[in-house]
Amino acid sequence: MRSRWGILAILFVVRLTIAFQFQSVAAVAPLLEKTFGVGLADIGLLIGLYFTPGVVLALPGGAIGRTFGDKPTTIAALLLMTAGSLVMATTEIWAWQMAGRLASGAGAVLLTVQLTKMGTDWFAGKEIATAMAIFVNSWPAGVAISLLVLPAIGTAHGAGAVFLSAGALTAIGILLIAFYQPPPATAAPTAASARLDRPALLAVIVAGAIWGLYNVGFAMIFSFGPSLLAERGWSIAAAGSAISLVMWLSVVSVPAGGYLADRFKRPFTLAVVASLMVALLLAWLPRSDAVITILVLIGLIGGHPAGPIMSLPARVLGPETRAIGMGVFYTLFYAAMMLGPAVAGRLAKSAGTAAVALDLGALTVLACPPLMWFFARIVSVRSRRARS
Length: 388
Prior knowledge:
cell membrane, single chain, MFS_trans_sf, mainly alpha, Growth Hormone, Chain: A, Arabinose ABC transporter permease, transmembrane helix, transmembrane
């Protein structure tokens, strides 16, 4: 297949399997509690284990992809995810559930890094913000599908069937990736040319920090928003339904932001303005009774920076450095996503309210615009040096 939009469709569906598998534990949490005699803290640990390998595997994951190639690395990652699901579907020992979850997460890290690099290969210099926005949108799409499908499967056939379903979907991903072809202009990198210069490395680190901090802020809504509403007397079901509005609306706002960034050629302006508005809305949410209005606004605005931010690495990475560069990018992202919720949880426990977690989210999003300015300065200086 040589159509870049066809390739993007393949990458979208394959990446969707990560979100689907991630949500599989939360979808059957009550069943797991009964089956294994564990509590919510254990379920929370099992959920969080999925992201843990990212801190140590994202950077070498880029090197692995550069060494063995796009398709072999992607297939290996999907096989690891499939194996993890099969372990969780067939074991009755909690420790093996954790081992299966870690294996799945490790595969997901390798897959995330590699798929992002592959998408950038095809769209660098042409509709990159739009493409990355569509690519990123596979996450809320995968979670939304899992919320519709997995609870019914779990209720009818048990937790094992849910994990088998996740494994079957990743196996389908293996078949799909067989149709992937690299872009014609991509040449095999040499060892010498695959080294990042210092400005490029710094730029990728800053870009990864931006993506991590923005996602930490966004995650505060899903992680602590229901608790915040429960503190106000909302039922758990009503609170969850209200918070889910953000996810459903982001399915529209994420690609819309990418399109607008490419259409008007001002990705930084769009990302900065949207980030400032989201920070304001996050700070406003714990202090207002207009909950639904604020959540709708977050959903409509919050997705706009995704495409522009995800397109940042393409500004400094060439074909020969993308695998390593995306490894650095995602190392920062996973570190932020691991630490952010943990810090927010401690602050919320100390303050006795989930509102402080939303305030922390507002601060992390507010940190993104100055970092975007710093990124732009790095790229500008690097470009001037290259011309001189």
